[in-house]
Write a structure and sequence with these properties.
This protein is an all-beta fold. The chain has 2 domains: 166 residues, Beta-galactosidase, Chain A, domain 5 (Distorted Sandwich), CATH 2.70.98.10; 89 residues, no CATH class. It contains 1 helix and 19 strands. The strands form 6 sheets. The protein has a 4-stranded antiparallel beta sheet with strand order 1-2-3-4, with no helix packed on it. The termini are far apart. 22% of the residues are buried.
Length: 258
């Protein structure tokens, strides 16, 4: 049976599309109250052609937002510093961000006001099935998401919702407006190019230490090309927003030596 690769839905305040591959949100346009049209989600530049055909499914048509079950890469983590060892009840999933991020979902019958799709996991996986619903909010430039996770047996797994946003090219042109409890970095090597010192738990998430001892505010995005890394912001309180800074930043986020 052939699976329709994508479906779109229009409402009073925009258009949303969803991909079968990964259940990813595709190109999405919001019409704001003042008439401005906003397309906030990133679409990987290789979306046309076969440039990424040899890559995992998650990268082949990378875009928008999608559910990651389980979230993360395939590895077990030993205890380090104040961090405990990983406590997953599953052997490492062979797919980055889980099976559902890398395979085609199938479409479900749904009302005309929403898009719905599902994916069945392999028989040996503790997750049996994911169901996802994407529903524009009537009369608003907003979308509601619903994710149902069905399990075969009890398990402890990380779950993530993974938006990727379209940002200006200029480093530090946008600020993350988030009230949070702490910032953290993974207690081990994630990527050899990561600039953040591992194993941090910082009360001020705007001040994370880099490998060279300097301090960086990861809230001024995008980071410069020389600043690549992975950091988590814990205990976030709604809303989480992007904001234009009150003054134009002269360049990349400022570094300070501790």
């Amino acid at each position: 049976m052939t699976t329709t690769s994508s479906k779109s839905l229009a409402w009073s305040h925009g258009v949303v599309s969803v991909e079968a591959l990964g259940g990813m949100l595709g190109p999405t346009l919001f019409v704001l109250a003042d008439g401005r049209q906003i397309a906030p989600f990133h679409i990987a530049p290789w979306f046309e052609g076969d440039q990424a055909s040899d890559q995992p499914g998650i990268l082949q048509r990378l875009r928008g937002e999608w559910p990651c079950v389980p979230f993360g890469a395939a590895s077990n983590r030993a205890a380090q510093g104040g961090w405990s060892a990983s406590n997953s009840t599953l052997e490492p999933d062979p797919y980055p961000h889980g099976y559902g991020s890398n395979h085609n979902w199938h479409w479900l019958t749904a009302p005309k006001t929403e898009l719905a799709l599902a994916i069945a996991y392999p028989a040996e996986h503790p997750i049996s099935r994911l169901e996802r619903r994407v529903q524009p909010v009537p009369g608003q430039a907003a979308i509601d998401f619903e994710l149902a996770v069905h399990v075969r047996r009890d398990c402890t797994l990380p779950i993530g919702l993974h938006p990727v946003f379209r940002l200006p090219a200029e480093p530090g042109a946008v600020e993350l407006d988030i009230t949070a409890r702490a910032g953290a970095t993974f207690p081990g090597e994630v990527d050899p190019s990561s600039i953040f010192a591992p194993g941090q738990i910082a009360e001020d998430w705007h001040a994370l230490v880099l490998n060279d001892g300097t301090i960086l505010d990861p809230g001024a995005v995008p980071l410069s090309p020389a600043h690549r890394g992975f950091a988590a912001i814990a205990g976030c309180r709604r809303p989480c927003r992007f904001a234009q800074p009150h003054r134009k930043l002269p360049g990349p986020p400022r570094l300070e030596r501790r």
